[in-house]
Specification:
single chain, 126 residues, alpha+beta, three-stranded antiparallel sheet, two-stranded antiparallel sheet, 4 helices, 7 strands, 22% helix, elongated
Amino acid sequence: MIQYPDNTREFQFPEIETNYPVYSKVYPQQNDYKYGSYTRFFVKKINDRTIYEISKENYTEISDNIYIKIAIEWKLAGEKNTVIENKIKMNEGVFEHNKSQINFYKKIMTGLENVLRDPLEFWIPS
C-alpha cells in the first residue's frame, strides 16, 4: 500500500503494477500457415477506446484489472468461403470463420470491427 498523507487524514490506495501495451502487429510465420491459423492478441484499457494488437509476451504481462484482453484464433489457410455439399457444411471458409470471430469478440471489445476490417487479412488461397 502507498500512503498519501494530507492535512486531515491519511489515504491509502493499493499499489497497482501493470505493464503497458506495446502495439505490435504480429504477422503469421510459415509454421502458422502449415497449421492453418494463429492466435492474435488484443487489449483495450477499460476506460479508453484505443485497441492495441500486441505480442503474446506483452499480452501475458498486461493486467486483467485495467485492460480487457482477448485472444482470437485467426484462420489463415483453406477455402475462402464455406464449402457446402448436399446442404451439409463440409468446411468453414476463412472469411466466415474470421468474420464470426470478429462478431463474437466485438461484444466483449467494442470497436474491434474497426481494427479487424478485413476477415481475409493474411489469407492465402490453397
